[in-house]
Amino acid sequence: MTGTTPEMSAPLAGLLDVLQLEQTGENSFRGRSLPQLNGRVYGGQVLAQTLLAAGRTVDPTRTPHSLHGYFLRPGDLEEPIEFQVERLRDGRSFSARRTHALQFGKPILSMTASFQEPQGGIEESQEMPQAPDPMTVDSAVEKFSAMDHPVAKFWTSQAAFDIRHVEEPLYLAPASERTDRQMVWMRARGPVADDQLTHRALMAYACDQLMLEPVLRRGGLSWALKGMSIASLDHAMWWHRDARVDEWLLYVQSSPSAQGGRGLGSARVFAQDGTLVASIAQEGMLRIP
């Protein structure tokens, strides 16, 4: 059972609009930001925009297969983001790009990405673990839509993805069991055009809000902890196969380590038919009162 893709939601339409970058030069682009309650640019947004800027300088037949990025400074919501792309190499099969996202002349994100022509080769992958059908799992969007709370209303108004935790969610309180493992179903709230660069950028956008949750779950914490400071430091992502964000994707997550005010989150991403489509790792800063 895949479930019918919903009609285009206003939050997804707004996100797709923000991801339409203005080209200002052969290797330069400009973008803007979605509103956020904390007054800072959401890391997943600038990560997706940076990947799209790099992809605009590559032959369209080559899709991104990996990225490595560092979040360097918090972004200002009111200031346009300038993207400068450096063409490192265009080989027979691969293209490499280094891209800086800049505000006030300083980088807020620095990313290297690699793109590849479609090629054949060994075909193998890990199997997807058993998971309940996403349509039987509670939706965070539906849950928050029913709440009369300003944070819940804002989150719902901006939620471009339907997020469904198989285990207890950590939004309001810690989970009853301390473990570094969790599984989350996720799908865009509407159809997305057939363009793998866009789908892979949207995967990068969406996963940033989940990657450090296993660290919180293992630490017996929740997002609602007062005084907690949390921020992404670096992000690595590998796409193994084509995937669609407007179809259900299962994020199988863990946290190998947390120490020194930092925590590492990892994820394997599966299509609903069990195909492994991506692997992700992210380290973040976590300061606990």
UniProtKB/TrEMBL annotation:
Belongs to the C/M/P thioester hydrolase family. Homotetramer. It catalyses: a fatty acyl-CoA + H2O = a fatty acid + CoA + H(+). It comes from the Bacteria. Residues 39-116 form the Acyl-CoA thioesterase-like N-terminal HotDog domain. GO terms for biological process: acyl-CoA metabolic process; fatty acid catabolic process. This is Acyl-CoA thioesterase 2. Keywords: Hydrolase, Lipid metabolism. Residues 148-285 form the Acyl-CoA thioesterase-like C-terminal domain. CDD domains: Thioesterase_II_repeat1, Thioesterase_II_repeat2. GO terms for molecular function: fatty acyl-CoA hydrolase activity.
